[in-house]
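Budget justification aside, the reviewers requested a transparent look at the raw inputs and outputs of the sequence design task funded under Objective 1. We therefore reproduce one unedited record. The lines immediately below are the structure tokens for a 333-residue chain.
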């Protein structure tokens, strides 16, 4: 979300001044016409001519003032409409990554499923991406890499999910920037290709999982290579503050242990270790709706079951400031 803002509080006052100026011009023009009538004597011909010229200029200025007033009113109306649109939170409903009738965000298990099938065009495209980073990899090495992604790729998927909403209506630009189309020939988002390209580009094979600080560096570094400004920042989020924060960018959250609920607040999954997911909304009772493994789940931030909940915000269009990296965080898998 852009931070673009304009102070329009003085616009109505300026418009009122403009209306008064236009009215004054019209009054002065009428006064000039009255004076001109009283001076229609032969010896006053030159003065009358000057008064006519003055009246004509006053009329032109009044017309210009009317045009300026109309333009200002139109510009103010357009900006007000834009400002209101900018204030609408970017929820999952606006990001094509979240399809309630199909996949709800990316999944770290999806590329492996494609690899085991070895059939569709996505398999060939995944192979091309891997070999663009690792030209000497054999088929077995590529499969191992995809299996590693399945084990530790949640942070990469959470980051990738946030990108697609930025390119709605700009799909051609997405293809130019990342080297593959935003949608497959079947109409599905190419989330798997983006996740694979990100993982191959930025993963450290000596480590497992990603910390909050590593996710920040991974996404900012990857997008910088593609000329896309982004700032991944640590934020504090509550159910009450979510709406306002979401104006600035989408949110991801790292939790430990991995405990997920359904929409009714029932625990449906529990596993040791950390997990990173994309936040797509908030419920009336304070649960956060999240995307994980291509499905919709919920987390209950106030539940004592969580030892750690760490939020990050992904703000596009904003270059990242230099910051000190903190160490010693638990990893999410």
């Amino acid at each position: 979300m852009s931070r673009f803002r304009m102070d329009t509080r003085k616009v109505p006052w300026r418009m009122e001044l403009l209306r008064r100026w236009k009215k004054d011009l019209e009054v002065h023009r009428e006064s000039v016409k009255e004076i001109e009538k009283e001076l229609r004597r032969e010896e006053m011909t030159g003065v009358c001519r000057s008064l006519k010229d003055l009246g004509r200029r006053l009329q032109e200025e009044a017309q210009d003032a009317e045009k300026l007033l109309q333009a200002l009113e139109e510009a103010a109306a357009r900006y007000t409409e834009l400002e209101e649109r900018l204030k609408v939170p970017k929820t999952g409903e606006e990001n094509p990554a979240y399809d309630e009738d199909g996949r709800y965000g990316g999944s770290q298990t999806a590329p492996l499923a494609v690899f085991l099938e070895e059939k569709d065009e996505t398999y060939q495209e995944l192979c091309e991406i891997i070999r663009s980073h690792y030209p000497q990899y054999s088929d077995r090495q590529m499969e191992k890499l995809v299996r590693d992604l399945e084990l530790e790729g949640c942070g990469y998927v959470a980051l990738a999910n946030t990108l697609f909403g930025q390119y709605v209506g700009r799909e051609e630009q997405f293809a130019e920037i990342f080297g593959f189309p935003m949608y497959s020939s079947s109409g599905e988002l190419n989330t798997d290709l983006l996740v694979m390209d990100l993982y191959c580009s930025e993963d450290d094979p000596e480590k497992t999982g990603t910390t909050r600080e590593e996710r920040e560096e991974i996404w900012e570094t990857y997008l910088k290579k593609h000329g896309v400004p982004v700032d991944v920042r640590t934020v504090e989020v509550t159910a009450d503050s979510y709406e306002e924060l979401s104006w600035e960018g989408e949110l991801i959250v790292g939790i430990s242990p991995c405990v997920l609920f359904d929409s009714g607040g029932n625990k449906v999954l529990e596993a040791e270790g950390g997990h990173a997911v994309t936040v797509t909304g908030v419920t009336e009772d304070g649960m956060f709706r999240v995307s994980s493994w291509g499905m919709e789940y919920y987390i209950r931030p106030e539940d004592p079951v969580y030892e750690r909940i760490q939020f990050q915000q992904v703000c596009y269009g904003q270059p990242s400031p230099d910051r000190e990296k903190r160490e010693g965080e638990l990893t999410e898998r």
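Strands lie at 230-235, 250-256, 258-261, 267-271, 275-282, 288-292, 295-299, 308-316. The longest strand covers residues 308-316. Computational costs for records of this kind are itemized in the attached budget.
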